[in-house]
Write a structure and sequence with these properties.
0% helix; 5-stranded antiparallel sheet; 102 residues; mainly beta
């Protein structure tokens, strides 16, 4: 296979329950640990991408194509930083300050 070829496999999205969700998604990764819902991504260069597809319909509602979206994983720089206390309230300090005389 050529290194310039990108293969993208999609399956029907059995969990679609809203219009803005994709009609097609990456197939499940059978090597995922139990309880994890990993999917098989597409590697472009050195970066893995997630793929999804939406049906393109004609005026009668017939599928005439699929629009594919491939996105690299978002970096941690894009995510807001977690607060230092991880969302818990600060614990009050009940200890009283003592002064020692020597």
């Amino acid at each position: 296979m050529s290194e310039n070829t990108v293969w993208c496999n999609l399956v029907r999205n059995e969990n679609k329950n809203a219009e803005n969700q994709p009609d097609w998604v990456a197939p499940p990764n059978t090597n995922a640990p139990e309880g994890k819902k990993w999917t098989i991504g597409v590697k472009i260069g050195d970066v893995w991408h997630n793929q999804a597809g939406w049906n393109e319909l004609d005026e009668q509602g017939n599928i005439i194509g699929i629009t594919i979206k491939m996105t690299p994983p978002s970096s941690s720089d894009d995510k807001p930083a977690a607060p230092q206390n991880k969302g818990f309230q600060n614990k009050p300090t009940y200890a009283r300050k003592q002064s020692y005389k020597f």
